[in-house]
Amino acid sequence: MGRANWQCGAGAEGRGVIELGIQAVLNLHREWLEGREGGRRAVLTGQSFNDAALQGANLQKAGLRQTSWLEADLSAADLSGAELESADFRRATLSEADFSEAQMLGVRLEEAWMTRAQFADARLQTCLFNGVSAAETRWMGAELLQCDFSHARLPGAAFHQARLFECNFSGSDLDSAVFYHARLQLCRLCGAVLSSANFGLARLLTCDFHAATMDFARLSRADLTRSQFDRASMQECDFREAKLTGASFTRAVLCGSRFGEADLSLADLRGANLRGACELTAAQLMAARTDDRTILPDGRRGPYLKGSGAESPRRR
Asked: So where are the chain's domains?
């Protein structure tokens, strides 16, 4: 069967995209995907599709290295399994586009509109998502290395079982995002909005949540080892059975949060506000660091003293 690549890059032999026409290239690519005689894989290296209207285009497994799609409309396009090294999608419309299993290295997506786009099992490295509008995007099982999501809008995004290393979400809106069973290491989420986010069973290792808004977040059975939540707002969070070993909550607001069976060994609660926090025990507070600025569950100032009863919130 005809399974050769259709070379459309600069200097490639044969007719390029401009001469043949993008629709003809897409038709040949579809035939290649179907294994039909005469089909050709689209390898569009170095081509420019700025402002193109390609809604629903099928570019599954296409070679799209160094391509430019500035302000193009690729809504509902299929880019699953595509090779996207150094591609440029700045300000593009990518709503409901499918990047599942794509290989993305150095891709630029700043200020793109990508509501409900799919990135399941994709591999992304040094990609730029600054300022994207990416509500309800799906990242299940994706691997993200050194990607920048600063000031991105990602409410309702789903990162189930994703792995993120040295990624930056500072200033981003991740309201109600789901990181269930995800692994985040050395990530920055300073000033991010994570209200009602779900981190159940997640591993948040040495991450920085300084000044983040995390009210009503679910962190039950999560591992927060050595992560920083200094000055974060974490009211009515669920920390039950979480591992908070060496985590820093200095000057964090933890009012009304639940800590049943959480491991607070060496957790830094100096200056933290624990007023109304429940399910804490004397042993837990003795294992943590408190000081005279700490507000204990019963409203008294710390440091916590064994036998004081300050671990129990006052009944109204």
From this structure: 1-47
